[in-house]
Amino acid sequence: MLGGVLGDGHKYFTVLGQVSLPYLLLAIFVYYLSVLIYALRWKLVLRGMGKDVPFLELVKSILASIFMNNVTPMSRSGGEVLRIAWISRRGKVPAGLSAMSIVYERILEAVPVFILFLVGMFCFSSMPGFLFVLGLLGIAFVWIRWEDFVRVSLRVFKTPVSEEELGQILSLKRCHGVTLAGILLSSVIWILDVVRLKLITLALGLHLGVLVLVIISIASLLLGLVALTPGGVGIIEGGLVGTLVHFGLPPAMAVSVTLLERLVSYVLSTVVGFVVLVTSGGMEIWRALKSP
């Protein structure tokens, strides 16, 4: 089906030629606003571990990590490693604390993602109740067995830490203010993701419902997690086109929405991330990581 869709390239250029520039610029603004909120969330987590890293360094490391994610196979395979090394060198944060701050971010992020996932499952699954209970049990298990989870994660990441650093990591669970703020900021990030999709569709003159946009956001997330190609190239695009066609969009419009979304979330982010990487000393950090 996709091959036939791609055969009508002139239709896509016709649709893309009618893009509303103000909506597209707003979508780009929303994307980078999300990056700032990512950095703020990370700063709060690090502060909860007793480390105060300059906000600008966190922003630069995230932007550079997006570039690395987009050019290395497997989701976040290169970007997360770069973030750990960047903050360890620039923020004087021990590698173990830096790694676990990112792991803790993912736990906080799991709450709104889980809610979005449930929305999608209620639309497509014949047993949403079972998936809800399974997901809830998974989150509860990690929270209850936090110390064991941390120790296993450190072994997986092959990151040695001192007893003092381990205590700082484990103390995060008791920082209720950091946890609640992190969940709130994570929720804002995913709301902005839906808002960005809304702006992109409006730029093409479409008026999709919030539920459809939420499901598209979930599809993009899941496709990115399972994609083996750099930045999910090919896999994410095909999945998003299929999702949009499933909801009744003409193939030409579905491809146009996907191309515009990937322009913002992949092409521009890759360019900006590369510029940050080469102008902020990130290449030296990456070369140090690759050297024996």
UniProtKB/TrEMBL annotation:
Localization, UniProt: Cell membrane
Q: Write down any Gene Ontology CC term.
A: plasma membrane
Q: How does it sit in the membrane?
A: Multi-pass membrane protein
- Asked if the record carries the keyword Ribonucleoprotein, the reply is no
Spans through the membrane:
20-40, 130-146, 175-192, 204-228, 240-260, 266-286
UniProt KW keywords: Cell membrane, Membrane, Transmembrane, Transmembrane helix
> According to its UniProt record, where is this protein mainly located?
membrane
InterPro entries reported for this sequence: L-PG_synthase/AglD
Q: Does the keyword Endoplasmic reticulum apply?
A: no
User: What Pfam families does this protein map onto?
Assistant: LPG_synthase_TM
- Provide the family line: Belongs to the UPF0104 family.
Q: What is this protein called?
A: Flippase-like domain-containing protein
Its ancestry begins with: Archaea, Methanobacteriati, Methanobacteriota, Thermococci, Thermococcales
